[in-house]
Amino acid sequence: MKKEDLITDEFLKQFKSGDELTSFLKNIQKRGIEKMLEGELDAHLDYDKHQQSPNSNARNGYNSKKIKTALGETNIKVPRDREASFNPMLVPKRSNMVDGLENVIISLYAKGMSNSDIEEQVREVYGFDVSTSTISRITDKVTNDIVAWQNRPLEPVYLITWMDGIVFKVRENSKVINKTMYIAVGLRRDGKKEVLGLWLGKSESAAFWMSVLTDIKARGVQDLLITATDNLNGFTNTIKNVFPESKTQICVVHQIRNATKYVVWKDKKEFTNDMKNIYEAPTKGAAEAALEDFAKKWDHKYSYAIKSWRNNWDELTVFYEFPVEIRKIIYTTNLIENLNGKIRKYTKNKLSFPTDEAVMKATFLALREATKKWTMPIRNWGIILNQFLTIFEDRVRL
């Protein structure tokens, strides 16, 4: 008989309301928690109930404790030992909440809800109060997770690494200032994406990116085959200083935005369509010819845009060195911009953050929610991997 068949339709018919079913489930949960606590004490004392104790410590009755779970409040019996050294993992001392509900609170916080909003949500859904200070204590536990995650070893090589920054308002010395959260996402040799880390700085700069890249290298990365970045001044040289063999592609979408920033509204559609002929050209030679045609038409009116293309030409056209499948995923930082959009969605309710730690915690939790589905290799991975093996054979196999 399958496990799901043990609960029959006839059995479920005995419950005439949702409250009756909830009461039954709470009773099952209570018994389950108490049995697990008994098991924890058995392991702590190193002998089973009704056996002779092999040491001086032994069972010493029970304490009653009110706990809060996803099914509401309930009273349980917590076994004691004579030496009072037993601290159960399921319901630790000085805690009245089980992991399931703590995970719910952390998830709500990750989705951008304030502590007071979470307090109200828990009260409405579960029927009991959780103070904002308790919510802060629960979410503060994430700090240890962040430290471990930020210092974890990384892969020796990433095929593509996308890098970008997202700006938050953070309070510092009684003022609210802009700070940039730097984010790097790497494509591993198994085709899966991985966020390499989060770094908070006062403003996006090549100098700060140098410290980010140095940290990445210190955690075990030996090579970044291709990097995709915005056109921050000096960024390419910064990457070359740390990873000399890396091919650096400036994001074409960033270039388009910068080029059209001061184009008047009536010209914008035609200007943008003409620019497509440059970055959609089949070869670098054809792209150069398209740039010349573009310049002849628009240089008299928007010379700064033409100059921007020419000044960044080598880094803007790196993608032409690769097959079409690789081109599509390196000529833009859309992947990381989409990730930034999801982080913004989760943090939009927070107009500013009180501390650096608060913005780091919120970003980390939002990131954890946003990347839950990063479990499969990217599309066309078999083809892309073979192309990388052909172009970078020795470096891919590091």
Automatic annotation (TrEMBL):
Biological process (GO), any one: DNA transposition
Coiled coil: none
UniProt keyword annotation of DNA-binding present: yes
PROSITE patterns documented for this protein: TRANSPOSASE_MUTATOR (PS01007)
Alphabetical UniProt keywords: DNA recombination, DNA-binding, Transposable element, Transposition
Transmembrane domains' residue ranges: none
Keyword DNA-binding appears in the UniProt entry: yes
GO MF terms held by the record: DNA binding; transposase activity
Family from the record: Belongs to the transposase mutator family.
Function noted in UniProt: Required for the transposition of the insertion element.
Name under which the protein is recorded: Mutator family transposase
Lineage of source species: Bacteria, Pseudomonadati, Bacteroidota, Flavobacteriia, Flavobacteriales
